[in-house]
Each structure stands twice: as structure tokens, then as C-alpha cells.
Description:
The complex is a heterotrimer of chains A (771), B (82) and C (158).
Chain A: H1 25-28, H2 43-47, E1 63-69, E2 75-81, H3 83-87, E3 91-95, H4 107-113, E4 118-119, E5 125-131, H5 134-143, E6 145-150, H6 157-161, E7 187-195, H7 198-203, E8 207-215, E9 227-232, E10 238-242, H8 247-258, E11 265-269, H9 285-295, E12 299-302, H10 305-311, E13 317-326, E14 332-342, H11 351-358, E15 367-374, H12 389-407, H13 411-418, H14 437-446, H15 448-451, E16 458-467, E17 472-480, E18 486-490, H16 498-510, E19 517-521, H17 538-565, E20 572-575, E21 578-581, E22 592-593, H18 594-599, H19 601-604, E23 608-616, E24 622-632, E25 639-649, H20 656-675, E26 706-711, H21 733-745, H22 756-770
Helix pairs in contact in A: 8-9, 11-12, 12-21, 13-14, 16-17, 20-21
Chain B: E1 2-6, H1 10-13, E2 19-22, H2 27-37, H3 42-46, E3 50-54, E4 57-59, E5 72-77
Parallel strand pairs in B: 1-5
Antiparallel strand pairs in B: 1-2, 3-4, 3-5
Chain C: E1 4-10, E2 13-19, H1 25-32, E3 51-54, E4 57-60, E5 73-75, H2 88-95, H3 105-118, H4 124-130, H5 142-155
Amino acid sequence: MARNPDADNAPVKKEIESPTSKYDAEKAASFKVVGSRPARPDGMDKVTGKARFGADMVMPGQLVGLILRSPHPHAVIKSIDSSEAEALSGVKAVITRDDFTPNDDHADVLYNIMAREKALYEGHAVAAVAATSRAVARKALKLIKVDYDILPHVTDVDEAMSPDAPVLHDNIITRGVSPTPTKPSNVVARSEFGHGDIEAGFAQADEIIERSFKTAATHQGYIEPHACVANVGTDGMSELWCCTQGHFHVRQVCASLLGIDVSRLRVTASEIGGGFGGKTTVFIEPVALALSRKAGRPVKIAMTRDEVFKASGPTASSSMDVKIGVTKDGRITAGYGVFRYQGGAFAGAPADFGAMSAFACYALDNVKTEAYDVVTNRPKGAAYRAPGAPMSVYAVESVVDELAARIGMDPIDLRLKNAAKEGSKSSYGPKFGSCGLVETLEAAKAHPHYSAPLGPNQGRGVASGFWFNFGGETCSNLNINADGTVTIAVGTPDIGGSRASMCIMAAEELGISYDKVRAIVADTSALGYNDTTEGSRVTFSSGMAVIKASQQAVTEMCKRAAMMWDIPAEAVTWEDGYAKPSGPNAGDFEPLSLAEIAATAGKTGGPIAGHHEYNADGAGVSFGTHIVDTEVDPETGKVDIIRYTVVQDAGKAIHPDYVEGQFQGGAAQGIGWALNEEYIYGDDGKLQNAGFLDYRMPVASDLPMIDTVIVEVPNPGHPYGVRGVGETGIVPPLAAIANGVSAAAGVRMTELPMSPPRVLKAIDDAKVAAE
Amino acid sequence: MVQVTLSGTIQQAAGGISTLEIEAKNIRQLLNALEKLCPALKPELEKGGIAVAINGTIYRDDWFQPIPEDSEVFLIPRLAGG
Amino acid sequence: MSGIHVSTKINGDAVEYVCDVEETLLDVLRDKLGMTGSKEGCASGDCGACSVTVDGRLTCSCLMLGAEAQGREIGTIEGVAKGTELHPVQQKILDNAALQCGVCTPGFVVAAKALLEKNPDPTETEIRYWLAGNLCRCTGYDKIIRAVMDAAAEMRGN
């Protein structure tokens, strides 16, 4: 939170606007459009192939941009000679680190998009070319001579933390430890959370289990590789088309890296082919802009899948220790966890979020978590759906499951007995407001899945999970058109159907049908700053902005009706899409519809519109509980998912289809993380499986139908009760599946992914140990 | 007075202090007071990596959010999402 | 590098183009013919986002050279709807909200249509295995499978 200390005594807001808006229970009782399942506005274009994604844009005279990447995981770049490439016919620009000036605000981002002193991971960008064809550009890359001085590398988090590990950055001095270290290391920061006295807590326990866990790095796996087209005009006015979760953020960072005014860069968000957090930052966009500026022509860069794996942001791998104590009757007396995450070549592994969410499902008197953010010679990680939480929750929920078995208690009952609820102190500090963990646990327990019989070699797992959710800077415009239709502009790219939800909320507020409302994602010149589509914030924040903008338009329409009737504006109310006199005293007038008011707007004061700009607070936390049946083949170690049920609190499902879709998608990604997905590094520090054949994401034949139960415990901080739903769904699956597989295999699985060789080895090791 | 609990990296940066009492009517006053009380915190606060929770509601950026008397306030890492 | 002249049929229309030897059919469709409905997700035949039919057979257009289209009949996503009239697979995907980001959707439409032309009454398992060459990262496949089952039922007249 940067701020200016001079205005220390600035006025305090008169009214407490916390949370930003209040839940309107009366309205929620009579929703007409909210909760329905209409077709999405962009659906037709997407099923016919007409929707334009990042790589689908063509600008006149456009060049092909390609990036030269380091083949070494760690090397000093002594020199780069691009003279031969520049001389090649058809090459219009070559750029290297020398084409970017140092940038204090975004130093790591700059270093990541174009290597400076060192190449820090295999795939780190070293130079880029723009040429008239892909063939010429490829040839040019081969002509660039880079002189490397190869250094020792480290890719494993535990190895990177050891005192004799190769150090990536000489300016990383561990924060959060006392005394401050004198020497640089790969440990960026140590964070600590918790309360109470864990030693006293463990002393009260009848059973204590302590285990260590590891999880592999996984990639968000969006099907659309990063792609953009940049065009820097002769006068410096620039446009950028790209697939991103946050085009305002892209504009801010690119303008800064290129040293241009924000007003001179217009960014348009294309349709986006998945993001899951991986498209919340920039990789190729500043490079394309720099190439375009040098070449004087538009430049398109589209990553290959190999580049996506090697040079965009996967999530962290982890190494974790968890210790939990419980009484015989199932009260958790203390929880302690240490979470070591490596997040690639730069600071920012989400270890702190992991530590904060690890025990969030439990109301504990004694809890302590420690987090270590560690750098290694891997691509800089990016956010991935509830960043940091799936791993830490996997560790905690595995131990909780084992404790339940140890004391002979049903695992859902154990969770219910200790569940966080409204008013309980969260494991990361603040008290929880209204939340729905207990409701999801009860719904899971009552679900037929939970009591269905299991077959041989099958095991059932259950786990809960949590994500914070947040709001952020948001604005939206809403225009009432002369024909009685409505157009909404939002600044948050739509990945999972949010335009449909925006239309639903405007239709609800205005009292008109869904078909009359259309929403677009506006470019950066059309709206004020909007935070990125992340943090499960869009339906909550942009939705609330749309509701407020609708209310503003309603106020104006009531005013116009009052003018027509020559009565005070306060004597007009809005009901089901009509302005009406508020009572007998207001007079007897025929109600005026939105369309009628819109038709004469030009004569009653001009266009009617609403807009809202704010910083959204009051995003409600979200909890979920998953049940999974797994079957383990004892001969091969292969795991099949037999049945899967997601129960999650959505606050209020605006468009239930897309809420279910978030639940199902999160579960499927979690299944991949649990069973197959893994960044595999060789001793040479190079990624060995940078393709979909060897980085095995779930395909249709791997999965069963994924049942969903939408629990609705309204968020008091949203007029319709909305909570974010996008991220929580990926938190419980790792643990739920590990618990299921452990039950089926008869041995506790402590390392992800539970790929066939690992499961087989665990079974064999257990057999040997038993003998 | 409000009771402020520090967590994450800033606890150590403040010299191992986890809770302190501060006179502040809004978030900006709180952060400025904290900085005066623990100058070592200045770089941490300036990095922009902090969010403030007041009575359970988390604020990422809201200088003038009032802090009612006797509030429970936590400084936690600024949240991000995927 | 000399270009290769190709005469082919795409979605029933005669099309001629000149392509380089190493250009894939997907490159030709997207970069030469402006048919960007087929997507490049991997360029290695693993994701199915570039699915087309070649003489009626489901094919990853990233695994076939543009030159190999000579004399063939190519079907792409652009030819699936007839004007504004959607194919039942497209309609059911819309009705079932069986898409989120939608980048894989064209490939699923082409692949599912090819399945139903071959097997009008597939089981859920048959659908899952047929579509195993198409990756979707958003939906967990649940709604896509339901959409294809619905489309099959409708096409059978149920």
C-alpha cells in the first residue's frame, strides 16, 4: 500500500462503507433473472469459430516476431552479436537487453521478459527478431551469436535452500528473519502466521501425526498459447492486442518498460483461451512492442507450446512438513506447518498464501505456519488458481484424514467438529465473517455419494479447502440505448462466461429481460483502470459495479419520468422495468417502460447512462468440500477416478451453469495435479516434458462426470450475496484424491503427482516394510 | 486505540513484535504511525505488499477506510489470485 | 524455397493456394486463407484444437502439410453451421454451457460431429474415448459430454 505520509490527517470518511455494499435479502428473495441459465452472449461466435483470440488478429503489414531463448538453466551472458541476423534479408528488427532501459518499478518483470546479466532458466528470452516471414525469422534466430559462461544450476526447492547451493541473485537477502542475513541466498523471504501456543496445544493432544510432503510444479495448461500483435505508430501512439486476464495491467507494465505515457498505449483484450492465473502478467507483449517500435511495423508474437511450458509461469513446487495434534474425541489441539515453495527464477512463490490458507478450514486455538519463498533456475512462476493453497491444504488435509482414521472418527465429523465458522479466528489472523464451510460439510455428508458402496481396490477421499477471494479496482459503464436495449462495458476480460453474469445482473436491476442486455469487455482507452480478472473477483466486483451503474441509470430514468409527469423525482419508483408513481399521492399516471423513457431520452435531457468506479471490498471467503472415489490398479499403480462430487459455497450463483463449470474445471485441474501433471527436470536443469504428450493433463476418457452441489450462504458484502467461485475448486482435490488413493492402496501417499510408478513404489515399499 | 497484529515477513522486520497498540482513525494513519513506531518496517510497507484487515474485512488499498475504536486489526500479505 | 500449388476443396468450395513445403494445413488455413476458427494449441497433435476433416476423416490439421490437401475435401469449423443455423452439436454446446473460454470449442465441434456421423448412438464411454484427443482445460469435460449426448439424441430424432 504505497502512500503519501504528508496527508496524515486527511479527513476520515463520514460513513463506514465497509463492506462496499450490503446484501439485500428482500431483493434476493424475489430474483427474476439471477439464477437462470441463459446462453452466453459470446457463445455463438465461439461454437462457430468466429471468436477472435490472441493469435487470430492480423494487422496490415504485420511482421512475425520470434524469441531466442537460453538453452542453459543458468549462465552469464557475456555478449550477444546480432549483426549477421540484422543483415539477413527480410529481418526488420532485432532486440536484446540493450533495447530496454533499467526499470526500478518492474525490475524482475523486465529481467524475465529479456535476460540481462544472466540467463536464469532454460527458455529465458535472450533476443528477439521481427521478420517478414516465420522462415526468415527462424533463420535469423540461428544467426544470433550468444556467448554464455555456464554456471551451476539448481531446480529443487530443498537443494536451493541449502547453504552451498548456486545463488541466482546477489541482491536477495532473506527478509523476515532475524538477524538479517549478511549474505545473499535463494531464500527470498520467511513469513510466519498463527496464534496461540502450539507446544501447549500439542501437549494436550492424544494423537499427533507429523509428516513431510512434496508436490511437483504444474502448469495452468490453458489451451491458447500467449499471443499478441503490437503496433507502435510513427508518432509513438501504440496499440496492443493480446490475450490477457488484465489488459489494464498489461498497459501499465508495458508503458513503463517502454518508457511511454500510459495514454499513448491502447490495449485491447482479445478473447482469452484460458488463463487460470497464468495470463496475469506480461511475457511477449513488451517484446512485441519493442520490436514494432524498432521495425516501424506491426509485430505479432505467438508462443509455441514448448515456449509456454518453458517460459511462461507454472506454479510452485513445494516441500512441506505438517504436524497436527488431536484429542481422542476429535478436537484439534494444535497445528503446525512449514511450507517451502520454489517459484522459479524470481521472487514471488505463493508460499505466504499457502501458509495462510493451510489451516483456514479450522478454528484452532493454537496454530503456527512458516512459509519460505525460494528462487531456482526454473521459469518464473505465475499465479495458478488459488495460488499457493492447493499444496499446503493437501498436506494439512492428508494429516487430518490420517488422524480421523487413527482416532476412529468419520473424516467429515472430525472436520465439522473443528470447522471454521462466522466469528472464529482464522489461522491467518482476522475473524471470519459469514462463511459456508459447515454447510458444505453437511451437504457432503448428506450426499448419496458419501454413503455409496465401494468396490475392490477402491478408496474414498474427502477434503475441504479455502480461498480468500478479493475485490479490487473496478469500473463499469452502462448505456440505455434509444431502442430500449442496454449495453454494458466492463474492464475485466471474460474467461468463464462473466459477460453473461453481467447481463443477468443488469437485467435483474433494471427489470428487463436478459435478451435486451449485451456486455462487452472494453479496451483500456474506454474505461478507467480495472484490476485483472483474478482472485475470483469478476462476478463480485464487476458485477457490483454493473449493479451500481444500473441503479444510477434507474435514478435518471425515474427523473425523466417525473419530468414527463411533472411531479417530483422522489415520487417515482422503479418496478419491473417501469417507472411508476410511488403512491396515490404522487398522482395517477400510466407507468413508463424503460423502452419508452429511452425512446424520448434525446428530448428529456439527452442520453441515459450509468457508471460506477470504486475499489471493491467485502469479497466473502469461499469454502468447499470434495468427495472422490479412486481405484488403484495394484499391478500397475494406475489410479482411476471413479466418482467425483464438488460441494462449494457460491454465496449466490448468478448463472448456475458457469458456477458449476468453475467447480468442475477446478476439480479436473486438481485431478491432473494429483495424478499426472509434473514439471520433470533432468540433471542438466532442462525441462524434459515440455509438451502435452508428456505433460499429461486429464483428457475426457480419464474423468467421470463431476457432480456439483452449489451451497448458497450469502456474502453480506454484495447486494446479491455473491462470493467468488473461481479458485476454491482447485484447493481440495489434491488432498481428497490423495486420501482416496491412500485408502485404496493401503499406504499414505506423500508426494504428488501420484503417477503409476510412484504409487507402485509406495505399495511395494509398504509390502517390504510389512515383511 | 486499536490493537494491531503483524504477520508474514513484517513481524520479524518489526523486531519480532507481533502485536502493538496504535492510535489511528483510518488505514493511512495506521500505516504512518506504524512506520514512525518501527522505522525498520518502512521498506516492507513501501513495497506495497501489505493488506489490512479490520474486524475481519480485508482491505488491499483503502487509505481512508475508518478504523472504529477498539477494532481488531491485522496486517497481512497483500492477496493476489489466479 | 519454391511454393507448391495446391487445388483443394474446403467446406465444399474449390480453393487454390500456393504454400511452402514445410507449412502445415493449419498454417495455410489460418495464415493464408484467414480461416482462424481452427486453433493452434500445441502443433504436435495432442490438443485437437485444430481438428478438421479430410475426406470425412477427423485429422489434426497441424500434423498434415498444406501440400497434402491437394485433391482432398477438407471440412473446417467454418463449414459446420449452415448460415445462422447451428449444427445440433453447436446448439447443444451452447444450451449446456459446455464452454468457458471457448478456444477448444471449434475442435470439439468438428470432432463430435465426425463421431456422430460415424456412430449416431455412442455411449458416454465411446464419446469420452473419441474426444480424448481434444483437450479442454476449463470444463472438466462434464458439460461437453452431456452436450454431445444431447446432440446425438436430437439427431436420432429422440
